[in-house]
């Protein structure tokens, strides 16, 4: 795995590492994250202030290294590499549920946390100029979330940016399960694949506490009750 990453690091701008390309989840992961048989995928296009802000910070630059935690998406690969950047893709949620859900493993188990981070975020320090987290952090219970935030902070360069989405209603028992594909600098194609139970939900105050070790946090609230968050490292 490390050798593959090192080889990818030697490629020029626009190179793509898609080793996080999704495959079919197994066991409990399938019941939590796959659409029920016969269910219709709900697809919509919407403007994203958070996405627009994320790309505004890197406008005019080329050769940056971006991490996408939503798995390999051809739209995202094309868009980011066409801007002249290198893209890495990780299917963060699949790795999460292969590590924990199939056997109900506790997300506070230190050994399993280390194993998960070694599979999902095993990159050198200060390697990335930006991370598209999407809504993945809502799946993480406190111990795993804290370890993941710490790892993200270490693998991005100073003054880089993270884009994360959180549902704004912190009393929901289930939230839509989304896939995000980039259409242009301010537009996303959002696919809903059913509902899921979040590990935890956040309000503005709890998000500020979550990212307290970062330089700044900026919020945008959407009509879909998604809180888009730009975090500066």
Structure, briefly:
By secondary structure, this protein is an alpha/beta fold. It contains eight helices and ten strands.
Features of the shown structure:
233 residues, alpha/beta, Rossmann fold, seven-stranded mixed β-sheet, three-stranded antiparallel β-sheet, 8 helices, globular
Please explain how this structure is put together.
The chain is α/β, with parallel strands linked by helices. It has one domain (2-19, 41-232): 3-Layer(aba) Sandwich (Rossmann fold), CATH 3.40.50. Helix content is 31%, strand content 29%. It contains eight helices and ten strands. The strands form two sheets. The protein has a seven-stranded mixed β-sheet with strand order 1-4-3-5-6-10-9, with helices on both faces. A three-stranded antiparallel β-sheet has the order 2-8-7. A hairpin with a 4-residue loop joins strand 9 and strand 10. Helix 5 packs antiparallel against helix 6. The longest helix has 14 residues, at 142-155. Mean pLDDT is 82; it is low at 1-15 and 19-39.
- By DSSP, the count of extended strands is 10
SSE run: HEHEHEHEHHEHEEEHEE
Class from secondary-structure proportions: alpha/beta
**How many individual domains?**
1
- This entry's quaternary arrangement is single chain
Instruction: Indicate the CATH architecture.
Output: 3-Layer(aba) Sandwich
Query: Could you name the CATH homologous superfamily?
Result: Vaccinia Virus protein VP39
Q: List low-pLDDT spans.
A: 1-15, 19-39
Provide the helix percentage: 25-40%
Rg over alpha carbons: 17 Å
Let me know the largest β-sheet: 7 strands, mixed
% residues in beta strands: 25-35%
Question: Termini distance?
Answer: 27 Å
Average pLDDT score? 82
